[in-house]
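Predict the 3D structure for this chain.
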Amino acid sequence: MWDPLYAQTFLGSCFSFCLQQRMFHVCVILLFVAHSAVMIMTKHWNFDLSGGLIIDLL
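Done. Predicted structure below.
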């Protein structure tokens, strides 16, 4: 089952790690992958979810 909260926590951890390691390009790639995964799994354009994900990570 797709759990947005789990994905958010996991991606947030990855994002923080990348920022600490100064690998911002990896963060950008992660963000695009995450966004694509959310779109595929929800099967519709849910701007609240993707927008919330980006805001939470930043």
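Residues 24-42 form the longest helix (19 residues).
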